[in-house]
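Deliverable D4.2, example record:
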Amino acid sequence: MAGIANGMAYHGGVRPFVATFFCFSDYMRPSVRLAALNELPVIFVWTHDSIGLGEDGPTHQPIEHLMSLRAMPGFTLIRPADANEAREAWRTAVEHREGPVGLVLSRQKLPVIDRREYAAADRLSKGAYVLAEASASPPRLILIASGSEIALALQAREKLEGEGIPTRVVSMPSWELFDRQPREYREEILPRSAPARLAVEAGASLGWKRYVGDGGDSVSLDRYGASAPGETVLKELGFNVENVVKRAKALL
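Output generated by the structure prediction step:
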């Protein structure tokens, strides 16, 4: 199907998309790479994006896939956090004409973030934005997350703020879009005055150092998953409020 989508893009006149489980992007890699190499505006929609998949086990739980595709030149990856970001991600993908875009979506039910309390989702097109601001400036700590881990980061922030630690949450659905922004914008989102940064993403840690810096860390996964209910797997492998708060405090 991915090859057919590429063929349709070569022909023109339509905007093709193709969808499957994220782990199966491995099987599609030659077509994805050719789309990137030839700047074809194909949209790849991948679901079941993490160990939150649950009982299907390690064979179906993507670990290295986010980083693998982020390493591909000419490819734009977007991992939205909720329905609002998913809407903006689709809009951004349709408007992007300079190559393929991958939308990476979850399997599990995610809360819809209350945008009356938190920032609007329309800044997704910039790749990263301040979703929840710290109670003091500059923030003492920055939590950076993408996709389904955003809800976890917000819960951890609430606990940290309750303990008197001014904490900013940055939603970073797309490295590629963020890296295209002016330096001033990137400094606004991740200021050098706040070196204590913790990335939270249910995938390989490789690459996060460029955003968290030498003074930061990441709650990530450099092993394969496990077969159990999704919430159980996430909790047991460190994607829970207690572990995120503990790892965040260790940076201060």
